[in-house]
Amino acid sequence: SFASVVDVLSGEIAVGSEITVRGWVRTRRDSKAGISFINIHDGSCFDAVQAVVPSEVDNYQSEVVKLTTGCSVAVTGTVAESAGQGQAFELQATKVHVYGWVEDPDTYPMSPKRHSMEYLREHAHLRTRTNVTGAVMRVRNCLSQALHRFFHEQGYLWVSTPIITASDAEGAGEMFRVSTLDMMNIPKKDNGQIDYAQDFFGKEAFLTVSGQLNVESYACSLSKVYTFGPTFRAENSNTSRHLSEFWMVEPEVAFADLNDIAGLAESMLKYAFKAVLTERADDMAFFQQRIDSGVIDRLQQVIEQDFVHMDYTDAVEILQNCGKKFEYPVAWGTDLQSEHERYLAEVHVGAPIILKNYPKDIKAFYMRQNDDGKTVAAMDVLAPGIGEIIGGSAREERLDVLDARLDEMQLPKEQYSWYRDLRRYGTVPHAGFGLGFERLVTYVTGMQNIRDVIPFPRAPKSADF
Ligand code: ATP
Ligand code: MG
Ligand code: MG
Ligand code: MG
Q: Which domain of life is it from (predicted)?
C-alpha cells in the first residue's frame, strides 16, 4: 500500500509493514558496503524519509546509484526503526521505481546547495521543491485553515465577495482596470477617450482592492460574516511588504464597535499562532533555526499577553519624543510610515500593538467619525518587524454623516448609491477589519520578504509563471 512520508516518520505505520513511498530524491549517499541511502520528500512534512537500498535490488547499478536530487521515485520496502540519529523510522527498500530523471544534474536549478531568496523567486515554479518553500506553504495552509476554523467556531458565515468591481473601496486610486482584449477597438468618445459604456461591463471595471464594501451588505443582514479572497493593488512601491496581488481576511460584524473588533483581531491572531505552533512544529523549528532565531518564543509570548492599545495621538507624541531619527518626520495628521509602525511595535512595546483613532483625513471615507470632529474610529494592528498587518474601523452608519464625507472628499455619490442604501434601510452600527494574509505569514515565519510567502508573487515588473 502507499504511504506518505509523514505517515512513516510519525510512527503511524507499524514497524514491519510493507509500503511504497512516492516522492522526490533530496539526497543520495552510497556506502562502500554497497548500500545507498536515499532521502525522499513528498511535501507531507518537513523531513525526508531515508530509504536504505541494498545492492540486491534489480536496478541498483543501472539506476539507483545514478539517482540525483530532484529525481522522482517510488520506493517499496519495510518500515523499520532507524539505528542512526535523526529520524526514528526508515524504509528498508526492496524495490526502486524511477518515474523521472533530472536532465543534466549539473545544471539542475534546485541543486542541493543554499540558494538566495532572489534566485528562488526567479524559479518560482521550482522553488516549491526547497525546504524553505515547502515549510512556508505548509505554515500558510495551516494559518488559512485555522482562520476559517476560528470564524466557523465563532458562528461567522464565509461569504465570497466579487473580484471584479466598479468601486474603489479605499479611494486610493491603486486599481487595475478590467477590460476585454479588444479594448482598443471600443468606440471612443468625442474627446478621444475610451467610452467605457461600450466596454464589456458597460462601465469602467476594476479588480477589487478590498471586499469590505460588499461584505458590509452581508453583515448588515446576516450579522457576522467574513470574506477571504484575493485582492489587487497597483502599488507602485517595491517594498518587502507589498504585493500587487495578495489575500485578505475581512470579518465584518453588525452591532460591533471599534473595541469589539480590536478584541476579535486579538483572539483571531492568538488562535492562529497557537494552531501553527502545535500543528506545524516541524516547520516552525526550521524557521527558528534557519530564518529567525526568535520566532517561536515571540509567538508564544504574544499568545500569553494582552495586546497593548494606544491612541494615534499618543503614538505621535511617543515617536516625536523617542529621540530616534526617522527618515520621515512625524506630525499629527500624517500617516505613519512602516519605520514608525515598526518602532512602536518592536521597540516601544516589543509585541503587536493596536493603534486607534486616526486623523480622518488620512483614512478612507467609510470610517466612523468620532465626536471630536478630527478623528475616526479606526484601528491598525502593528507587528514587530513588519508594521501594519491589520487595518480596520467602525463604519459610518449615519447616512447624513457619510454623505457629508463623500462630498467633502469629492467622491461621486451615485457610484456609492447601493452602499448608501445600507444606511437608508435599517442601518446599524457595524465594524470590521482586513488582515493582510501574507503579512501574517511573514510575521509567523520570520521570513524577510512578502514575495517569499505567496506561491507566485505579483509585483511591479513581475508577473511571470
Ligand atoms: P500599508 O499602509 O502597509 O500600505 P494599507 O493601510 O494601505 O497598508 P489597508 O488598505 O488597510 O492597507 O489593507 C488592509 C491590510 O491589507 C493591511 O493592513 C495589510 O496587512 C494588507 N495589505 C495592504 N496592502 C497590501 C499589499 N500591497 N500587499 C500585501 N498586503 C497588503
Ligand atoms: Mg497601502
Ligand atoms: Mg496603512
Ligand atoms: Mg491600513
A: Bacteria
Cα–Cα separations (whole angstroms), residue 146 to 229, 270, 278: 15, 10, 11
Is residue 61 helix, strand or coil?
coil
Write out the DSSP string of 371-395.
TTSSEEEEEEEEETTTEEEEEEEEE
**DSSP H helices in 417-460:** 417-424, 437-445
Cell of 348: 516601544
| ipTM tops 0.85 | yes
Task: Summarize the chain as % helix, strand, coil (round to 5).
Answer: 35, 25, 40
Q: Is 265 in the pocket of ligand 1 (CB under 6 A)?
A: no
Distance CA 106, CA 123 (A): 16
Ligand 3: centre distance to CA 336 (Å): 7
pLDDT tens-digit readout, 236-254:
888 999 999 999 999 999 9
* % of the chain surpassing 90 pLDDT: 88
Q: Which ligand is nearest to the CA of 245?
A: 1
Centre of ligand 4 from the C-alpha of residue 281, in Å: 31
